[in-house]
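PROTOCOL LOG
Step 1. Enter all chains and additional molecules of the complex.
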Amino acid sequence: MPVGTLASVKGVPQDLLEDLGVQILLGNTYHLYLRPGVKAVRGMGGLHGFMSWDRAILTDSGGFQVFSLSELRKVTEDGVTFRSHLDGSSHFFSPESAMEAEIGLGADIIMAFDECTEFPAEKERARASMEMTLRWAERSKKYFEEHKHEVPWGSDRLSAISCRQNEMLRRFAPRNDKRVVIPDGATQSLFGIVQGGMEFDLRKESAERTVEIGFPGYAIGGLSVGEPREVTHEVVEATVEHLPADRPRYLMGVGTPEEIEQYARMGVDMMDCVLPTRAARHGLLFTSEGKISIKQARYATDSGPLDPACSCRVCGRYSRAYLRHLYAANEVLAQVLNTIHNLSFYLDTMLRVRHSIRLGEGARFHSGVSSQPKP
Amino acid sequence: MPVGTLASVKGVPQDLLEDLGVQILLGNTYHLYLRPGVKAVRGMGGLHGFMSWDRAILTDSGGFQVFSLSELRKVTEDGVTFRSHLDGSSHFFSPESAMEAEIGLGADIIMAFDECTEFPAEKERARASMEMTLRWAERSKKYFEEHKHEVPWGSDRLSAISCRQNEMLRRFAPRNDKRVVIPDGATQSLFGIVQGGMEFDLRKESAERTVEIGFPGYAIGGLSVGEPREVTHEVVEATVEHLPADRPRYLMGVGTPEEIEQYARMGVDMMDCVLPTRAARHGLLFTSEGKISIKQARYATDSGPLDPACSCRVCGRYSRAYLRHLYAANEVLAQVLNTIHNLSFYLDTMLRVRHSIRLGEGARFHSGVSSQPKP
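Step 2. Run joint prediction.
Step 3. Record the structure below.
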């Protein structure tokens, strides 16, 4: 999932994202709550109407940004008081108010309000944080069930969703699988989040108890918070096996192209990361020949394409010399083109992963439905 | 002509410019000479190859930027010594070196090196400046004629030009017009520039003597330098009548949408202006209902399109509320979308002008070939 923090994947118009094959975008509740505000987005029919994007959207709960961006936050059982990173104004997020915000934003998938445990954390602290996330998950689900009909979708959105779900089912669901049913009058899907720090036993317990609460999908949170990459890898491996294979398993906030392929092999179905878009803004480009820093003088006279193996509209048209010039001259088009390419590279990576799953190489990827041969 | 100062129309990929119907772009020799340098551009086959743009390009001579941007410039009969606005390094432009740069950049239309007379200027100063521009025009033409074969075009470019010229001839040339001939092995076209300050008699003299030197097209320079709009209007009117109607007449550096329509009515064939792109970056948008400052709070909940009469990809997809949010949140997409719309508005304006000329309402526009009815 490309990240569109403020209802925009920085620099790339929506129709170009569609051309790239983006199926789902991530929006950040914390940022959208501050600007332009939930009420404004709700008034335009939710994020879909506001940013004119018919395909799927996922919003996080704001929890992670509150922990990473805002100052002077105060966490209690009730929720989190925090100050805006923009103007210092004071705000309060609880499981209930975060759900209210996410329902107002109207994404297709929304996330329970969790506490992202800091790294490093003592085991007792990780347990206490996990327990609170579990209590907040129950409160999130309760509020959501009571208010899910308040989603600002019109009938257009609902029929668009049905069409897409039917299409997805036709393409991916195993024959005779009756477990997935398209509901009449679809609502948003609320996903639970597994925490537990870097402790395998806590992760197992968090996963099992979150599944007990019951969600249509599950996320692995609390990673990419400063721990070594090997630890991330081990914790994901130790967590994913305790999450049901017939529900989407979403690993939050990873990773490099190599990593997302590895996580997919472990059974992760969804990932989001700012890396392709943020790196693009710094002139760091992912290619089939490795990472390139386009600002380097060696590219000033390089008439070749950025990545000869890439068929995106950037590699098909522009030279490395031109991209280097745009970056060096601080031209806005550098960000636009670099972002398009990096997204294309990430999406191609996932396309390859999906392709190999469908070819049956994925038997070891999943223990669940999607490893069965296509009908 | 949209302005692409550094070989990019800020924020807009080339394929979107093509979709907008952009037929010709302007590049700035002064800026390109400093970054990435003429040699780098020449090495990539000129601007066309460098920025991957097959349609037409025009470069100015650098004269205007030397006068408006650089500090500590010193003008002599020989040329201009100036300091870079980027790093203060010292450089020298003469008619010969400016031609050398423009040939290396390889645009389709290049401009003679002129002195842009400052405003206000005493009549004697305007005359002296005009005389120097005439001498520099002769030197520009002489150097160009001796070096025009050095243009870095391959045969691809030449055949692309022939195709486009044939297409243009078929669409616009009157029946039996034998005056326009497509040369074998086309080169660039060097245009002369009329100066003369705000003095009508000097403008007439400058026009006549520039025509005597002989160029395939003529520009009106030295305007939009701080004079009142009415004066610009009068000087254009007093100049354009002394330029041959069967050659392109190019008014440099104007104007608002209303103005470019007025100047076209006077017989001006070509114009360039940073206004649509620069205004877009400041959130100023041109619409059929007047100019809009999208940052205003009144648009925060406006679900309507930016301009209901516009069919560009921005007006067809996004609301004013979304555009306002992007601008207020300092999102790069604001610049991208605003620029696309403003360019579309300008190009639509010129499309209307061309349409009315072809419908024959243009009898009073031109005394030359293009006023005759289409065969």
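Step 4. Note key features.
Chain A is about 45% helix and 10% strand.
The CA atoms of residues 243 and 296 of chain A lie 45 Å apart.
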